[in-house]
Design a protein that fits this description.
alpha/beta; 15 helices; 8 strands; 48% helix
Length: 402
């Protein structure tokens, strides 16, 4: 089988297999919204996978408001932390960038009208577009897992906070970076107490606030300062105080104050911290995959426990990468680390029983150990799932051996 499998040095594996991804910056898409009565452009990144041999995986979805500003940095971040050199700090994700249209940013991202801008107040309608049109469209067209995150900065953070408090069923995690909670005389902040008394089981909220005020001020001097930056920062900190009051509402939340950043500089580092908070358990010590020595059974149990933890955390069965475990299995088989090779082949069968490739791999393992009868059993199982001339030929050759 012509799979990219036999590698001389496992230490070079990640760089060689993922280098091709570095030049991919997503694709354009669009969806027509009857709610907004306009066509909405989209920027999409979906991780590539070779479905010729492997089961199509599913990925969490990251929805990004002001996508024309934040899409590229988030994609690079996820590549670096979820792909390059085997990094597992973050999972691979589908990114849906939602660019602004025309001069409609204030209209779409403000949940209530305000006399300061005649176009404001379309946030609830925009949220309806997200829930009823965009999310179903993405779910139908792309390989999504039942887990989604929405990220917004400034007015986008205001919309995200409003969505958490009033539409918590739409997304699993909400990231509000420097949300403009002062909007409309801090109306949403005034509603927060009653809204935070509801239950948010399974939901996460990351709230970022920076030093967007005069340098001489500190957080204790905010409330009585009329400066716009102080009002802005004070409103976010007040929301943080309200979050503390409702510890029994099952919301997992984190507030981080960035003393060395301001409203404009904070998004990148806040996005990093938010995703690490949301996917806190995702990182796995992948160097263990490469070890020639070490207890194979202990490693297997560590892997199983890791994915059980992720599944419990996210609320759906989280599986490893079939393609990745396939690579490890053949790499160890090539280097004659037979226990480790068998473990990865078997884990792939356990996690992906619907994949012909996993049984084909185990057949190759037994053939390498000169057990053609065992190999034939697995190859026939592979053929029962998907016929390939290559596997059929391997069976015929094995049956001819004395």
């Amino acid at each position: 089988m012509k799979k990219i499998i036999l590698i001389g040095l496992l230490s070079h594996f990640f760089l060689s297999i993922h280098a091709q991804h570095l030049v991919s910056f997503g694709q354009r898409d669009s969806v027509y919204s009857t709610i907004l009565n306009e066509n909405r452009p989209l920027w999409i990144y979906s991780p590539p996978v070779d479905t010729t041999w492997f089961v199509k995986p599913s990925y969490p979805v990251l929805y990004v408001l002001d996508g024309d500003f934040h899409f590229a940095t988030l994609q690079t971040m996820i590549q670096q932390l979820g792909v390059i050199n085997g990094n597992t700090a973050l999972p691979q994700m589908i990114i849906v960038g939602i660019p602004n249209t025309g001069r409609n940013r204030t209209r779409d991202l403000t949940p209530t009208a305000d006399s300061s801008d005649a176009s404001a107040g379309g946030g609830e309608q925009f949220t309806a577009f997200l829930e009823k049109e965009l999310v179903p469209y993405i779910n139908k067209k792309y390989p999504v897992a039942p887990y989604s995150i929405i990220v917004g900065h400034s007015l986008g953070g205001l919309l995200v906070t409003n969505a958490l408090l009033k539409h918590s069923h739409v997304f699993n995690a909400y990231v509000a970076i420097e949300p403009s909670l002062f909007w409309h005389n801090s109306q949403l902040l005034g509603e927060a107490d009653s809204l935070l008394s509801q239950h948010f089981k399974g939901r996460k909220f990351f709230l970022a606030v920076s030093h967007t005020m005069k340098a001489a001020l500190d957080t204790q001097q905010l409330k009585n300062n009329p400066d716009r930056g102080a009002i802005h920062t004070s409103a976010i900190l007040q929301l943080g105080e309200k979050l503390k009051k409702y510890a029994g509402n099952d919301l997992k939340w984190s507030l981080k104050y960035y003393a060395d950043d301001d409203h404009i500089s904070v998004p990148l580092i806040a996005e990093y911290d938010a995703l690490r908070f949301i996917f806190k358990e995702n990182r796995f010590p992948t160097y263990l995959y490469f070890e020639k020595e070490g207890n194979t059974d202990s490693l297997k149990q560590l892997i199983i426990h890791h994915f059980q933890t992720l599944s419990q955390e996210r609320g759906y069965p989280v599986r490893p990468s079939e393609q990745l475990f396939n690579q490890f299995a053949y790499g160890h088989l090539h280097d004659k680390h037979f226990d480790k090779a068998k473990m990865f082949f078997q884990l792939n069968i356990d996690y992906f029983p619907e994949s012909f490739n996993t049984y084909d791999g185990m057949g190759d393992y037994w053939m390498e150990l000169h057990h053609p009868a065992q190999a034939i059993i697995y190859w026939k199982k592979a053929l029962s799932i998907r016929y390939t001339a290559e596997i059929k030929e391997k069976i015929e050759k094995a049956e001819q051996k004395p």
